[in-house]
Structure formats: structure tokens, C-alpha cells
Amino acid sequence: MTQNVVELKPTSQPAPTGQREVLRIVIVGHVDHGKSTLIGRLLYDTNSIPPEKVKALEEVSKKRGKGIEWAYLLDALQAERDQGITIDVSHIWFKSPQRDYVIIDAPGHKEFITNMVSGAASADGALLVVDANEGVREQTRRHGYLLQMLGIDQVTVVINKMDQVDYAEDRFYVLEREVTQYLREIGITPRFILPISAYVGSNVAKTSDQMEWHHGPTLLSALDKMEVRPSAEHLPLRVPLQDIYKFDDRRIFAARIESGVLRVGDELVFSPSNKTSRVKTIEAWSSPVEPVVARAGQTVGFTLEEQIFVERGEVASHAADAPFESNVFKAHLFWLGREPLKVGKRYRMKLATARHDIVIEQVDRLVDTDTLQSQQGESVARHGIADVVVRSRSMVALDEYRALPKLGRFVLLDGYDVVGGGLISTEGYPDQRDATTIRSTNITHVDLRVTGAMRSAQNGHRGGVLWFTGLSGAGKSTLAVELERRLHQRGYHVYVLDGDNVREGLNANLGFSPEDRAENIRRVGEVAGLFADAGLIVITAFISPYRADRDRARDAARDAFHEIYIKSDLATCEQRDPKGLYERARRGEIKEFTGISAPYEEPETPELVVDTSVADEDACMQQLMSFVEGRFRQA
Amino acid sequence: MEPSVRQSHLDQLEAESIYIFREMFAQIEKPAMLWSLGKDSNVMLWLARKAFFGHVPFPLVHVDTGKKFPEMYAFREKYEKEWNLNLIRGGCPPVEDIDDSLPPAARSAARKTEGLKWILAEHQFTGVVAGIRRDEQAIRAKERVFSPRSDSGEWSFKDQPPELWDHYKTEFPPGTHVRIHPLLQWTEIDIWRYIQRENIPVVDLYFAKDGLRYRSLGDQDITNPVPSTASTIAEIIEELEHTSVSERAGRAMDHEAEDAFERLRTDGYM
């Protein structure tokens, strides 16, 4: 055995004491603005480079006939050296006297945004590098925008290569203004903007004689002022189930506490199934005492008092502060797929530990990160950013990103590949939890002796629901009232459930929040179903803008349900404006007004479409009468 | 409001590794874990037992070059029984069968890569848990937590999947297998502090005898000890806080040619 003994030399580095804090920073910026050189310089100035590596570096640089290029240190791969660009996220450790750092080196080449996003997603703070010669460039803006999207709000900017502009004070101030203006517009307030030269070592770890005009800190002390992301334990409890283990007689639910605090004895509600149970134990292996509490950031196991069936993907929370439930929501999305995003195409969504099949229902706007202008468009290209509407096949437990980021963000998969990431906004859509929760228990259904067939034989027609949906001003109420009159004349048992009328009694306790609107429609759907069972033809006239609400009304009345789309374009409705509501909505006096500031989801397969923007009232009535005669007249 | 309790750095690392283990177990159809008998490997095994409440619900694989230290084999026999492990012992091809364009130590190390390929082919594992760390070596710093390999075991470092917000790549076309790296974020000193905190057993070769100790354990003929007087875990931690010699300085294959490690790794070396 050879004994090539390697010498071990202590350095002058002050010893870290015990458990030091570790801060993760990502370094971003336009290609060739000097990110790798800056990292090399930081490592060198903090004595973080092993002597053998310094030696190797000197040899490589000599062989290539250049002076010491600190960037070589990072270019660990042959391929990178040859191309002269950084090709993937790399992790590098160094220490300041204050604490430990992990640098996540993100590439600046346009093709490699995927890696930059992967690196930045886990960082506490960011360093944005800007070349003093070139100033703010396309990737400077795009990276800044993505940092903001990824929720990194601690950003320090360095104006690098100051040696190449003769350390000119006025040049620095021009760039400082330019950077600040862009970052402010996207919602980032930079902590510091510092003039440096990574190559020379000015103002990185040591202050610079050439820049006495600069009174701010060195880069290293600016980094020391960044903070590790705060704990999420004061936020509402969110525990997405990772797995359920049955290794022995215990049934252990494995999960990471994403926010809040979990205690033995807590009553938990699981979303989206809405099942409930109580925490019996918190399980730990090799722990001297059985834990009774688990906090945000911990990966734990727990058992439940009642044996309920819940799977990976369900989110446990306290009932008082449960996540939002919806199968449709808005999202701010960045696209990484090689193929552009297609509206209507099926993608897989991963949100915490849950997976859902979704489609992007529409693209509301595309964002140009250079100009911050909005554009219209149906498709989002690779590295594009857009506001979209996401529709899931199944109910999703989610949160507003700004309030609870862990459940407010998701990734999309196309086939096997991650193609995008998104941040959720719940604005404009109702929480569907109440509408889908069954709270009654111990119910026994009573069978009646009068059947539907007996009722329709006596009435001479079948019972059923004519569910009118459409924008305000499309003509729902006008047509409903006239249809009722004509059917009554012909001997039909018919009744109109009108929006305003119902709110005087049955639904007097409901307001106009998305949740109350959903409950309004749920009750009307159930009542309409009962009327239809009783043998009546019931006509409902409600905007009922959400597909999920109409689907539930269909479930209540089953086969007797007929969705009738009273169609008219927004401009026509707004021109009619029989109640003056559009005008008030345009002035901002009515919030979340359908068609203006809240969505209307068109029916996908209505039983009948009555287009009031092209046909007059009489033609519409004939269309409706012949529909009813065809469907409801008892043969 | 009660004051919040910030997790220590080791607690954070532990929680993340456990999360990775559980993601792996929930999503990878047929997993196995490499057990090289080294310190990282033992920390990894400990974390698996924490993740699964004392169980290790998948087989361990020891790719045996036949050239490990006797102390390592003794350690293996002892804990295989004591911890009730499902251990698969795999062999390696002779060095003569390995690409002779590789430098000698790298060529020797490449036997392990081939041995692993044999085991993967025999058992059809779809995921292999490996204890690499980003701070060990510059190329390992570029790894992902879930790192797909082609069916020939190759790693394409230029085309790695995005890894966003702990959503690791867990779906693959048939024929792909994935390496899972629960220790990627740990550093050498984290490993020793955790061994100390959790009282995890390690092979004695790490402790100094006659002024020498091993910082990293590989095959006997291509691993060299470093001068050291650190004979306890506390002394090792103290030593690491002051050293600037890299951990793998005693691993011969790292120093042969500028790209030797890169070639090993793209070919599937752990």
C-alpha cells in the first residue's frame, strides 16, 4: 500500500463555533457580468480555498497563458472551460467571521434559465451582478423578475467591473438609478447597491482606496446583514400528507409541517376530502421522550384517534383556518417547457404532495420582463411569463401564494418533464369547501309512494329544471318570465326562481362574496331539484358564472336538469345595462362583477343555446317553447 | 404568542433528508440504498431508520470490490445483524475488464461502477439511494437530489431536470433509473456533528492511530491516510474547523487528470 501522505495545514480562518447559521444565496445576472469571478474572489478573500486548489488553479491558468482567473475555480468541468460559460447550478461553501454561506451559482446564459430557477428556488437571498460597462441587460431584468416570483425579497445588487470604468462615481449613480427603478417596478427594494471590482478585489471583503466616494458597506458585510428565512410556525397549520406507513400495528401518517404548530389532541380537517380526526400521538424514532408538539419545518409522523381513510396529497389543518378549496384558480406562471404552453392541453400539476390533472383554460396576459408590458396571446413560449386560469379535474386544497407560499405554488408536468412553475391567486373564485361538505349525519332516506311517473301522468308533462345561465343583461329574467306565462297558458305547471326574489327570503342571509354566491346557487339548485321532483317545470334565472356551481345543480336534479345558455356578448349586455350595474362596476363601485372584474365560465355542453344578441325576443321564445314541448310533453 | 423555536442547522438537514427518503419511498417503485460502510453511508442509514420509524423498508447494496479494509468488513457483519438489514452483496469485474484509457486509480475505482451496473441489471432496481455530498467534489456540487440516469447508467450533467420547491423529478420513461441523494446538502463537518449528536457508530479507521487517520474510505490500494492526531469525534470536528485540505485529498483518482473524475461520474460513478 502506498503511503502518499497529504499534509494538513491550518489556515488563519477564525474557527466557527458550534452551530452556526447557514445562509443560502443565489448569484444571478446577465452572462459575462462576472458572477463566477465574484464567487472566486469571495472564496479567496475569505480563505475558503484549500491550498492544493489554489495551486491547481495557478497551474491551469499558467498552462492557458493567462493571469489568475478566479472563475476557473468554479468551472470544474472541462466542457465549461471550453465554452467559457457556467452551465449548471453549483453549490459552494464559504464562511465569513459571522456565519456560514452556501453560494448557489446560477448560470447567465439564456438557455440555462431552468438551472437558475432551480438554484434560486431554495435561496434565502440573492446577489444580482451588473457589469459597470454594459449596465442592465435582458437577463438582469429577467433574473430580477424571477427572483421576485420565487419569493426572494432580500436582494443586494453589485455593480461589478468598476475598475474598467476607472471607478467613476457618476457611472455608478447612473446604474444605481436604472437598477433601482426596474426592481421597484417589479416589487423588489434592493437592500444595497454596491460598486465593486471582483477581479481586483475592491469592496468585496476589503474597502477600496479607489472608491472613497462610496460610503456603503463592503459586499461581505452586506451579506452578513441578510437574514435566514423566518420560521413559518406563526402561520396557519398546513400538513400535506407524504405517505401512510403500516410497518407494524401503528398507522403512521408521515408529513412535513409546512407551517404552523401541530399538537397531540388537535382536531384536524383533511382537505380536499373534508374528513376529520384528532391527533393521538406524534411519533419519533430514537427520541428519549415522546413528542407532544411539532413545528413548521419538521418532518414528523403522527397517529389519529379515528381510523379515517386519507391518502398522500391530502392537507391536514385546523378547521378554523383551513386551506381554500377550488377546482379553478388564477396563477402567475413561468414556463420552462421546450414546447410552448397550449391552452386546453392536459398537464399534471404537483402542489405540495398532491397531484392533479389540469388544463390551462385561458391565458389572461403575457408579461414582457424587459418592458413589463402586458401582451395578449394564447400560447406561452419557453421562458415566458403569463397570467393564466387553471382548471383541475379534481378539487384542490390550496392557498393564496402571498399568504401561505408552500401551498400557494405548484409545478406543471408535461409527460415526464417539469415544464413550468406557478403562483396561485384565489381572487375572483369562491372557496368551494362549504358547498362540498356534508355535515348532516344519521340520515335515513324515506321512500315516497307517489312516483315521478304518477306525477307526470297526472300533470300531463314531466317535471324538470330549465337552468338559465348567462351574463347580467343577457335577457335571462325577461325570457324566464315570458316563458313561464306562455307555458302556464298552455296548461303546464311552471314556476320561476329568480335571483332577486330568492334573496328576499330563502337566501336573505347571503351576501355577494364568491363563497356566498356559491351557496346561493347551491340552495337554488337543491330547491329547483325538489320542485322538479314534485312534478313542476322550474325556470331559474341566475348568472351562475361558475361551472362547478352549475355542475352541482345538475347533480341535485339529475336527468331533469337542462342547462340553457342565454348567450349575449359583453358589449351588448353592457349597452343594455337594464339595472345600471355595468356602469357602476366600471366606476369600481361594484367589486367582483361578472364579466368586468370576475370571470364568467361559459357552459361547455349546454342542452340549449339561446343567442339574444342575434335573435329577437319572439324568435328566442319560439326556440324555448319548442325545446320544452319536445322534452317535457308527456307522450 | 409564544416565541418561535428556530430549528438548528442539523435539524434542518435532518428534516430535509427524511423528506427526501419519504418522497423516494412513496414514488420510486423498486428502490435500493448503497451502503459503502463509510461515515456518510452510516449517517444515511441512520436517517432512513428515522424516516421509517426504525425500519429500512428496502434492500441495502454493498458493491464489494474485495479490496476494502478488514475493519470495514467486520463493521458490515456486525451491523447487518444488529440492525436487521436486508443486505445484497455484489461483486465487481477484475480491473483488466475496465477501460484502459482511464488513469490507474480511476480505472480501479471504475470497477465499482461496473459492479453496481451488474446489481441493477440483476435486481431491476428503479432507484438507488447514494450518499454523495455537494461539498465533496466540484462535479458532485452540480448534482440534483433526484438525478435520472439513462439505461446504461450515464449521467447527463448538461441536461438536468429543474428541481423547484422540493418537487423532485419522480416520473421517468421506462428504462430510466434514478439516483437519489438525501445527503446532497450536508458538508463533511455536518456529518461529524450529526454522528456526535446521534451517537452513530463508524469504522475505527477514521480515528488517528500513530499520527495518521483516514478522512475518506475507499479501496485499500487507492486510499491514503492524512496526518492527524484526532482520535475522537470531538477532535475530528475540531480538526475540520481548522483545516483547508480537501476531504478527498487522500483519494488518488481525484488527482490524476483534470477530467478523470468527470469521466468516472458521467459513466455512473457515485
Give a quick summary of the entry.
The complex is a heterodimer of chains A (635) and B (270). Chain A has 635 residues and is of the alpha/beta class.
Strand content of chain B: 5-15%
- Please report the number of helical segments of chain B: 7
Strand content of chain A is: 25-35%
Count of separate DSSP helical elements of chain A: 16
Low-confidence stretches of chain A: 1-18, 76-88
> Per CATH, what is the topology of chain B?
Rossmann fold
How would a crystallographer describe the biggest sheet of chain B?
6 strands, mixed
Find the CATH superfamily of chain B. HUPs
What is the N-to-C succession of helices and strands of chain B? HEHEHEHEEEHEEHH
Please give the domain count of chain B.
1
CATH superfamily of the largest domain in chain A: P-loop containing nucleotide triphosphate hydrolases
Oligomer: heterodimer
Instruction: Please count the beta strands of chain A (DSSP E, at least 2 residues each).
Output: 26
Structural class of chain B: alpha/beta
- What is the mean pLDDT of chain B? 81
Please list the strands of the largest sheet of chain A in the order they lie side by side: 2-3-1-4-5-6
Strand-helix topology:
The complex is a heterodimer of chains A (635) and B (270).
Chain A: E1 22-29, H1 35-45, H2 51-63, H3 78-83, E2 90-95, E3 100-105, H4 113-120, E4 125-131, H5 138-149, E5 155-160, H6 169-185, E6 192-195, H7 219-224, E7 239-245, E8 252-256, E9 261-263, E10 267-271, E11 275-283, E12 293-295, E13 299-304, E14 315-318, E15 324-335, E16 346-351, E17 354-367, E18 374-375, E19 385-398, E20 409-414, E21 417-425, H8 433-436, H9 452-459, E22 464-469, H10 476-489, E23 494-498, H11 499-502, H12 514-533, E24 537-541, H13 547-557, E25 561-567, H14 570-576, H15 581-586, E26 608-611, H16 617-632
Parallel strand pairs in A: 1-3, 1-4, 4-5, 5-6, 22-24, 22-25, 23-24, 25-26
Antiparallel strand pairs in A: 2-3, 7-8, 7-14, 8-13, 9-12, 10-11, 10-14, 11-13, 15-19, 15-21, 16-17, 16-20, 17-18, 17-19, 20-21
Helix pairs in contact in A: 10-16, 12-13
Chain B: H1 9-27, E1 31-34, H2 39-51, E2 60-63, H3 70-82, E3 87-90, H4 104-123, E4 127-129, E5 146-149, E6 177-180, H5 188-198, E7 212-213, E8 226-227, H6 233-242, H7 260-266
Parallel strand pairs in B: 1-2, 1-4, 2-3, 4-6
Antiparallel strand pairs in B: 5-6, 7-8
